[in-house]
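2024-03-11 09:14:02 INFO receiving multi-entity request
2024-03-11 09:14:02 INFO entity count = two
2024-03-11 09:14:03 INFO echoing inputs for audit
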Amino acid sequence: MKKTLLRITALAATLLAAGLAQAETKLDVLTWFSADQAKTFQAAITEYEAAHPGVKIKLNTVAGTGAATFPNVLRTRIAGGQAPDIFTMWGGSLAGPFVDSKAALDLAPYYKKYSWDAILLPSAVNAVKRNGTTWGAPIDLRAVSFFYRKDNFKKAGVAVPASFAELEAACEKLKAQQITCVSAAGTFGWHVMRLFDFFLEHTAGPEMHDQLLTGKTSWDRPEVVQAFALLKKWTANGWLPSGYMGISPDQAQQLFLQGKAAMILEGDWFVTNSNAAGLTPEQYGFFVPPTDKTPARLEGFAEQFMIAKQSKNPDAAAEFVNWWLQPATQNKYYSVNGSSATKDAAPDAAKNPQGATYVKMIAANPTYMIMDQAFPPEMMSTTYYRLQSAVAAGQTTPEAAAKEMQAGVAGIGK
Amino acid sequence: MITNTRIDPNDPGAAAAHPPVATKKKWRRLLRRFTPYFFLAPALLIYGGFVIYPMLDSLMISFTNWDGMAEERAFVGLANYSRIFDDPVAILALKNNLIWTVVMLAVPTALGLLLALGLNRSFKGKNLFRSFFYAPAILPLVGVAGIWAWMFDPNVGLINTTLNLIGLGSFAHQWLGDPNTALYAVMVAGIWQGLGFPMVLYLAGLQGIPADQYEAARIDGAKPLKQFWHITMPWLRETHIIVITLGVIASFKVFDLIYSMTYGGPGQATQVLASWMYFQTFQFFHAGYGSALTWLIALILMVVTIPYIRITSRRSGG
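2024-03-11 09:21:47 INFO inference complete, emitting structure
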């Protein structure tokens, strides 16, 4: 009798729990956050869950994998019918496959419902648009600048360059002191691409650069030839690390952090890296790349939250995204991304003075799209990265590279 | 199972209760015939579900334009296969695979045999040396790639630093950054890691050679080199086949070292078929074309593997 009673009680409890579970809205979030980022983001999730009883959010992270692996994990989950409700994604062409395969939800109704255009930076919203549609909500706006070692600059007797000519003169003085001028890495291609993007902004200027990135003008032109010629010149002059085409971005960063290189093109995240490596604000700083053009622009890219089309709770997912985008949330949890796409969001200047200065620099300068978000990965790999390597190795001429770039851009989608 | 029950042929009830001996025997024969298959069934089911089915699915995908994610996929016939021959990177990758195969067959096989010959002798610390030379083989390839990528670092790497220290700075080079040396630099890591396996196989082969063969040769006045060519090499014939076949298979499957050390670069200089398949499938979202590349690798390997299986089956009496 006692056993029967116990069984009935257990069954009732199970049914009750099942009923409660059914009433619960479960959200699955997939991000590329590192352990530290995930810890802070989990604290935000806990706060959200406390304010929204009935919502349970499971956080999954694929940390430290970058653009090489994260999309694979996401793609496998989507193909297996187990898409997360919300996932992080880069902007531009990197998000393209997920949009084109109809894996992401068009967020236009939520932009309207929550008035996201009023709280988000227009440049960030534009950066995540594809074919004029907002498939995601931007969570940050990254921008690349020159980080520099103050100790190396002092040793070589150079000041922060205000023009391209001053930058090249500084490289020559740094080389005389046996210090690598700019650290760069060719493995994966995208690290050296930042330098080429800067050269192209210098040679072509903002308007033409934008036209090149959108395929509205031919790449087979003198400005592109000049940009490739600069890559060749900087390689030949020894202003880039020896054998830089065969080293990884981690190795390039180490050259800077160890003081063997004076400059490196990195984004706001590198403030955290530099601080973690023990560098103090007295040892390093950053400046807007001197393009000699007006406006002086930074190379930028946005990252976003997308909602999967497979999501069973898209409204609840959008509600969470809306909460995350609010200025109050962004300011409180700024360290998760170290950047924000929300207006009026900034790091605490007292706790992170370098980070706050960086945000001011981004706010003061417009951005142009980074090349690997402008063009599909296949074109970047088979055309641009191949040409960048061939020019650096002297296997092709800048003129031939410009011609081949045009052929590559013209061949996109064919 | 044997039964002693006797059946009276004049008792119809007994005949119904006890089936005729001939039927029983037939069942027993059938049972005996199918028993191995019953035991094999669980493994076959697992193999079918996790190997055969994915293989057939990948074959089907290779005839479509599937991106690996979308619900729709269109049949494109042999278009993905014909594309391979128009794709300069795929042709370069095949060429790199062939270079890799030739080098990886020549160097680790020859060095493995030499080491095996040395380590087959009796001397103090023999087992320690065997473990020492085999140790890299048990390391994960990604770890090996990490070690060698740092060694080849042109600025702070051990190789260039050592060359500079001993006055051979002029030989310091951007090993992984130069399209002309990158593939060979990765091969060095491959040789270092892959040396232990042929060594172990040759050691096993050498231990199977009867000692009296050498004894008789010595009595007949054969010198060590003659003994090597006329006794050791013929006795190692099957080991050579195994080492070479497994070497070819490993060479066409090479991926980890390339991916981790050069990512197929500089440019596309070190792409091999497996890495190009990975890029096409997972980076460029061309699952159809990636599957066609996979099947090209599979076809090449089948040409090598089928004779290997026949030889090993013959040896084991299968």
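2024-03-11 09:21:48 INFO post-check: The two ends of chain A are 76 Å apart (CA to CA).
2024-03-11 09:21:48 INFO post-check: Chain A has two domains: 2-142+301-362, 143-299+367-410.
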